[in-house]
Amino acid sequence: MRALSLLVGLILLAGPLAAAEPEVLERAEIAGDLVRERLLLRGCEPGSPVPAIAVYPKGAARLPLVLLMHWFQGSKEVMEPWAKELAPQGFFVVAPDLYLHGERSVKGIFDRPNLPDLGEEYSVFIHQTSISHSALDFPYLLDDLAARPEVDAKRVGVGGFSMGAGLSLVLAWREPRVSVVASIVGAADFWWDVTKIPPGADQDAKRLSYGPAVQRLVTSLDVSTRLDRIPPKALYVASGRKDHFIDIESMRRVSERLRKLYEATPERFRFHEEDVGHEFTESMRRGATEWFVKFLKAPPAPAPKKEGDAPKPEPKKDDAPPAPPAR
Fold it and tell me: Which domain holds residue 135?
């Protein structure tokens, strides 16, 4: 027993296993001089690895990394067409199965009617747990993918649709390695989204109708209370004016607050509306793709200045730094 206790103590002191290259389950060369792989990545729990699809240009190295997240009740396969559009432009693109989805799903978990409508406690719990657990997986995914010679882990973008867009916004405020974000038809005010009620007394009453576990879960993720932690990351947000799941007014209010936060770097934030419902349109996808190209292939944004920082003197003309190489 003493030897076992000592062994456990040594394991705890050692911390988590060091990052390793992802397990490649399948590799094939596909049209467009691309490579498609089925991967198994580490998650935040040792017994719950993350299946994923990777697409990237054959023979490339040190590519910007983009992770694409699917919608509620979706899977990694639904994001593969977008991955195949992005990869030829010089990206290493990964589409993972989010928690409780795809190969990580559990039989019967989505058998209740009207789950995507949220509102009811069970559907809110499944939806928000998927986001929360997937966000916890993300640092491990990044560590493993950084070990690939094809990946430049200093240039990381995330994008997604619906639930995947909400996860992208959570990663925008939580994950320091993410520098570019594309949220397509996702929510930012999570309490407005899950209750389907604008802020006020009625929403407060609905919130209190949920148990403590769900209340804590939603509050722990809510993007709208953490918007100041997103800049200067390059943020693209697209929404549908006729969206029956996510009230366009909720996104407009968040957008106004974000514009003020991005006053110093307005070019790094874009809010795009279309006269559609809860749809992933071609123009939204094109806008997000252009966003990744513009900001992941450009030098990173400078860190925001802290109070008291002295301004640096302008370089003299004859000792100015050379212009960056064209990309």
Answer: 36-76+92-299
